[in-house]
Write a structure and sequence with these properties.
413 residues, 5 strands, 60% helix, five-stranded mixed β-sheet, mainly alpha
């Protein structure tokens, strides 16, 4: 009924007439509810019939209570004596209808269409009763308007139930997704008896087809309150960690790289190499290593990098202690030179190792005069002697010098 302070037209209807209208309407409610449900099932044959504890279809009970609640509310507004019990049961009943739509993966559009059909049929029956009892037209007009307001209140309750169920489903899916990601990324520290079966079963709970390959990413938040990137429903994303993680299925197929690049615009981080799902923890370790280098300024931190495009840096810079130890031994002859001179000799040695050419080629690479290169190469041979002709020694020298260049300790090639 209207919630405004405007005087209701029903207040002008004699109370005995209102009571008679209410009594006939309540008497008609069970048959009317059955007719409405029958018509709804004819229009919407896919409607599931859920039976309540009493053995009746919940939809039938809900329709009947809606009619009874509406009529009793009418009696209350008109000032006639009436039993208002039962109206308070409507919210939980119609919230349950909304929850059911969400749990069955259906939209609220069909439910609202059913409600509108029910109100139309109910209005026809109540209008017939009002005509027989000679209820004044203003009261019946108000009754029609109140019916659609009542419909809105029922829809509101169903929307609330739908939203609550959807939130619970989303929360449960997120919980199951995190468990799946933990199973993928923990390296199977406590391996289940059958890892493949465990992974398949866990993935099936959220409808995630286990792919042939995955790539694991680690993201750096552009801001504390950054909105999750729209990476798509088949990409597993965990935003609850300090550094969000994602598992990308089949990362090199179906235009995935371009889609992912667009979705991650504005973010930075790294995506590990593609691996079998059972080896996802290895891809995660490479992504974490790349992010660590980004934070040290050794890899660009303005976008989400693919580890496969920065293999040299990851291989040479990550085992830092081992490379430093090798550098101390391999470059020991330079300790006898001053810092600036040692750097020039190191750059010349690396250019020579990379080009395998003579003084002109090395000079072109370094942007200096060939005679300068010849002078430096003589010094290099004096410092290392025949060791620069040994293939293993040359490899060690090139490895540690490339590592130093990646760290910015030597000039670019």
């Amino acid at each position: 009924m209207p919630t405004t302070t405007t005087r209701s037209a029903w207040c002008d209807v004699p109370r005995p007439q209102v009571r008679q209208f209410s009594a006939l309407s309540l008497e008609e409610a069970p048959r009317l509810a059955e007719d409405i449900l029958r018509e709804i099932r004819r229009e919407f044959p896919q409607l599931p019939l859920v039976i309540d504890a009493s053995g009746e279809p919940m939809a039938l009970v809900g329709i009947r209570r809606a009619i009874e609640g509406f009529v009793r509310h009418l009696a209350t507004v008109s000032g006639a004596d009436g039993d208002t019990q039962g109206a308070d049961q409507l919210p939980s009943m119609f919230q349950e209808f909304g929850r059911g739509q969400s749990l069955h993966g259906q939209s609220l559009d069909a439910l609202q269409a059913m409600y509108r059909l029910g109100v139309k049929l109910a209005w026809r029956r109540l209008a017939d009763i009002g005509q027989r009892l000679r209820i004044p037209p203003p009261a019946m007009y108000e009754l029609a308007e109140s019916g659609y307001e009542y419909l809105d209140s029922l829809v509101d309750q169903s929307v609330r139930g739908y939203a609550e169920a959807a939130a619970r489903q989303a929360g449960e899916r997120l919980r199951q997704q995190r468990k799946l990601m933990d199973l993928l990324l923990d390296g199977h520290a406590v391996a289940p008896p059958d890892p493949v079966k465990a992974l398949t079963e866990r993935a099936a709970r959220i409808g995630w087809p286990v792919p042939d390959q995955v790539a694991v990413g680690v993201l750096l938040r552009p801001a504390r309150d950054a909105v999750a990137p729209a990476v798509g429903p088949d990409v597993l994303l965990d935003m609850e960690t300090e550094r969000p993680r994602l598992v990308v299925p089949d990362p090199d197929t179906g235009g995935r790289p371009d889609l992912l690049r667009r979705a991650l615009t504005g973010w930075s981080g790294a995506i590990g190499p593609p691996v079998a799902p059972a080896d996802a923890a290895k891809s995660l370790r490479w992504a974490e290593s790349a992010v660590a280098l980004m934070e040290r300024g050794l890899l660009p931190a303005t976008e989400v990098l693919r580890c496969t495009e920065h293999t040299q840096a990851l291989v040479l810079l990550q085992p830092e202690e081992l490379v430093d130890d090798l550098a101390r031994r391999a470059l020991a002859p330079l300790t006898h030179c001053g810092p600036a001179h040692a750097r020039r000799l190191a750059e010349t040695l690396l250019a020579w190792l990379e080009t395998r050419g003579g003084a002109p080629e090395v000079a072109t690479r370094l942007g200096v005069h060939p005679q300068t290169v010849r002078y430096r190469l003589r010094q290099i041979r004096e410092l290392w002697g025949d060791e620069v002709d040994d293939p293993d020694r040359r490899f060690e020298l090139e490895l540690v010098l490339r590592a130093r260049r990646l760290r910015g300790e030597l000039g670019p090639p």
